[in-house]
C-alpha cells in the first residue's frame, strides 16, 4: 500500500539496508570472487551453502547495487513470520520470498512461489541444504527444491555460491560477531540437462558448490 | 605552526615529491612495457605506488591530528591486522568468547592505556594480563580439542597485531629532554626508515637481485636487495637525523637496528604465511596484500626502537 506511511517505511528500510551492508564490510572485509560469472544484470538463481543467518546478507553485500535491488532471498516462512521484528526484517528489509517448509500445512507450493518471483523479474538466493549447517561437514545433502525449480524454469542460470568463513564470524549461540575476513565465490552457472535424473542433477549441483570451497582441496 | 609541524610539513613535501617521481616512472614504464596491462610486475608496481599515496595521506592526517589521531590510526591498523591473523588460525566454536574479548576488550583497552600515557600498565597489559586471561577463558569454556595450539595462536595474534603495533603511537609519550613537542617526528622517522627500507629492498632486488636469502620462505628476498635496501635506509635515516634527538651517526645506527628487525619481521611473517599456504595476509591494500603484509617490518622494529630510545634518551 504505497501511502505516506509506506513511503517512510520503505525509506527506513533502504537506509537500514545500506547500514547493514556497511556493517558487513566493517566486520568481514568481504570480497566477492567472480570466478564463473561476471557481476552483470542477468537473471539468476544463486544457490549457496548455509551456515549462518548472515549468509544472504553477505552475498547481497558483494553484488553491485543494481543487482542487489532485484535479488531476493528465499527463506522459511515459519522462522521469518514468527515475530514482528522478523517479519519486518524478512518482508520489508530484504523482500524475501517466504516459503512454507512444512508440506503438511502449506497452502502454496514453494517451487511455484519461486517461479512466480522469477517471472516477475527477480533473481533469487536459495539455500538448497534447507536449513543452517551446524555440523562439521562442509555441506548437508541438498533438498530437491533446486531440481524442481530448474525443471520449472529451465532457462534461468543456476549459479553456485560458496560463502567462506562466515560460520566462524557468527557461530551458533554467539551474539557478538568476531571480525574475520570472508569471501563469496561465484561459480559457473548450471542448467538442468534434458532427461537428467533428479539425483544426478542434485549431485552435480552439490559437487559444483563444494568445488568452490577453498578448503575443498585439503579435505577431499 | 610549531617548528615540529613545519619540519613535518617539509618531510611530507619530500615524500610527496618522491611519490610524484615514482608515479611518473611507473607511468613511463607502463607506457613502454605494459601498454595493455600485460606485465604483472609493472601493474603491481603501479598498484603499490597508488596505495602509497593513500597510506602517506592517511599517515599525514593522523600525524597532524596529534596524539589522538595517531593512536586511533594505529588502533584501526591493529584491528585490521588482528582480523587478518585470526582469519588464518584454526579457531573453533569454543574460542568465540576469547576472541570477542581479544577484539572488543583487549585491543581498545591497550590503545586507551597507551593514550593515557600509563607506561607501567600498557607495557605489560597484554604480555601479563592478556597472557593469563586468554587461556583461562578458553579453559572455562571447556573445549580441550587442540587447546594448546588454539591458546598459543590467540596469544601470538594479540602480541603481534596489537601489542607490538601499539608501540608506534606510544612513542608520542616519551619524555626526551630538549625534544618536547617534537615526538611526532620520531614516528615519522621510524615509519620512513622502515618503509623506505622495504621499498629500497624491493627496488634493489628487482634491479640487481640474484642470490636468494631464504628461497623456501620468500622468493623475492635477495642478498643484493637486502644489502642495497639496508644501506639506502641507513643513508635515509642519517639524512633525517634533523627530525630526531639523534646525531647523524646515531640515526644511522638506529636505522640499522630498524632495518634488521624489519627484515626478520618480514621473514617470520612469511614463515606463517607458508605454514598456512597463503600468499598474502589479506587484500585490502591493493598491490601490497593485507595490513600485515605492509606492517610486518613495523611490528618487529617498533618495540625495539621504542625501548632503545626510551633507555638511552629519556
TrEMBL record, chain A:
<dbReference type="GO" id="GO:0003841">
    <property type="term" value="F:1-acylglycerol-3-phosphate O-acyltransferase activity"/>
</dbReference>
<dbReference type="InterPro" id="IPR002123">
    <property type="entry name" value="Plipid/glycerol_acylTrfase"/>
</dbReference>
<comment type="pathway">
    <text>Lipid metabolism.</text>
</comment>
<dbReference type="GO" id="GO:0006654">
    <property type="term" value="P:phosphatidic acid biosynthetic process"/>
</dbReference>
<feature type="domain" description="Phospholipid/glycerol acyltransferase">
    <location>
        <begin position="44"/>
        <end position="166"/>
    </location>
</feature>
<keyword id="KW-0808">Transferase</keyword>
<dbReference type="Pfam" id="PF01553">
    <property type="entry name" value="Acyltransferase"/>
</dbReference>
<protein>
    <submittedName>
        <fullName>1-acyl-sn-glycerol-3-phosphate acyltransferase</fullName>
    </submittedName>
</protein>
<keyword id="KW-0012">Acyltransferase</keyword>
TrEMBL record, chain B:
<protein>
    <submittedName>
        <fullName>Phosphatidate cytidylyltransferase</fullName>
    </submittedName>
</protein>
<feature type="transmembrane region" description="Helical">
    <location>
        <begin position="184"/>
        <end position="204"/>
    </location>
</feature>
<feature type="transmembrane region" description="Helical">
    <location>
        <begin position="154"/>
        <end position="172"/>
    </location>
</feature>
<keyword id="KW-0812">Transmembrane</keyword>
<keyword id="KW-0808">Transferase</keyword>
<dbReference type="GO" id="GO:0016779">
    <property type="term" value="F:nucleotidyltransferase activity"/>
</dbReference>
<feature type="transmembrane region" description="Helical">
    <location>
        <begin position="249"/>
        <end position="272"/>
    </location>
</feature>
<keyword id="KW-0548">Nucleotidyltransferase</keyword>
<keyword id="KW-1133">Transmembrane helix</keyword>
<feature type="transmembrane region" description="Helical">
    <location>
        <begin position="225"/>
        <end position="243"/>
    </location>
</feature>
<dbReference type="GO" id="GO:0005886">
    <property type="term" value="C:plasma membrane"/>
</dbReference>
<dbReference type="GO" id="GO:0009273">
    <property type="term" value="P:peptidoglycan-based cell wall biogenesis"/>
</dbReference>
<dbReference type="Pfam" id="PF01148">
    <property type="entry name" value="CTP_transf_1"/>
</dbReference>
<feature type="transmembrane region" description="Helical">
    <location>
        <begin position="94"/>
        <end position="113"/>
    </location>
</feature>
<feature type="transmembrane region" description="Helical">
    <location>
        <begin position="52"/>
        <end position="82"/>
    </location>
</feature>
<feature type="transmembrane region" description="Helical">
    <location>
        <begin position="119"/>
        <end position="142"/>
    </location>
</feature>
<keyword id="KW-0472">Membrane</keyword>
